[in-house]
Design goal:
The chain is of the alpha+beta class. The chain folds into two domains: 57 residues; 102 residues, Tetrahydropterin Synthase, Chain A (2-Layer Sandwich), CATH 3.30.479. It is built from five helices and three strands.
Length: 175
C-alpha cells in the first residue's frame, strides 16, 4: 500500500501540468481568430469604400443677379452746440449724417429740409442736456441712440438706416 501511494503522487503531477498547456494553446488560438477577423474587417471595409465616385458638374445656364441696394448719406446738421452739464461751458463741433437708400435720397432730403428748424432744435436740446461723459464716449453710442430715437419720433422709423456722427469735438468756451 505504501508503494501504491508513492506511485499515485507522480501521476497527479503530470495531470496538473496538462491544463496549463491547454490554456496557452486556447489563448493563442483565440488571438489568432481575433487577428483573422480584424484583417477580414479591414479588407471588407476597403472593398466597400472603393474610392471616390465620378461626378459630372453642370454649368448653370443663368447666374442669378442680386440687386445691390446702394446707400447715400444725407447731412442732417453741422453746427457748434453748447453743453453746460459739468459747470463749464463746452461747445461741441457736431456733424450728424443719416445713411439712407439711394432711391430715397431726394425724398429724405426734402423731408429734412421741411423740418430743418425742428430737427436742429431737438438735436441742440439733446446735446445741451447730455452729460459730458456720454458726449466723449469713443463710439458716441448714447448720443447716437438719443438722436436716432428723436428723429424716429419726428420723421418715422423707415426714414434712415443708420445714423453717423463723423465729427463731435469739444471746445471749452470760457477761459
Amino acid at each position: 500500500m505504501a508503494s501504491d501511494k508513492k506511485e499515485a503522487k507522480p501521476a497527479a503531477e503530470p495531470a496538473a501540468d496538462a491544463p496549463k498547456k491547454g490554456g496557452k494553446g486556447k489563448l493563442i488560438m483565440v488571438a489568432g481568430i481575433v487577428v483573422v477577423l480584424e484583417i477580414a474587417t479591414v479588407g471588407v471595409t476597403l472593398m466597400m469604400s472603393g474610392g471616390p465616385k465620378r461626378v459630372v458638374a453642370e454649368v448653370p445656364k443663368e447666374v442669378p443677379h442680386e440687386v445691390v441696394e446702394r446707400d447715400a448719406e444725407v447731412k442732417i446738421i453741422d453746427a457748434k452746440l453748447p453743453n453746460n452739464t459739468t459747470g463749464r461751458l463746452y461747445l461741441f463741433d457736431l456733424q450728424v449724417v443719416a445713411k439712407v437708400n439711394e432711391k430715397d435720397k431726394t425724398k429724405v432730403t426734402e423731408l429734412f429740409a421741411e423740418r430743418d428748424a425742428e430737427i436742429r432744435d431737438r438735436i441742440r436740446t439733446i446735446v445741451a442736456s447730455t452729460d459730458f461723459k456720454s458726449m466723449t464716449e469713443p463710439g458716441l453710442e448714447t448720443l447716437r441712440r438719443q438722436i436716432a430715437y428723436q428723429l424716429e419720433q419726428d420723421l418715422g422709423k423707415e426714414v434712415f438706416k443708420e445714423l453717423l456722427i463723423p465729427k463731435c469735438t469739444p471746445f471749452r468756451a470760457e477761459f
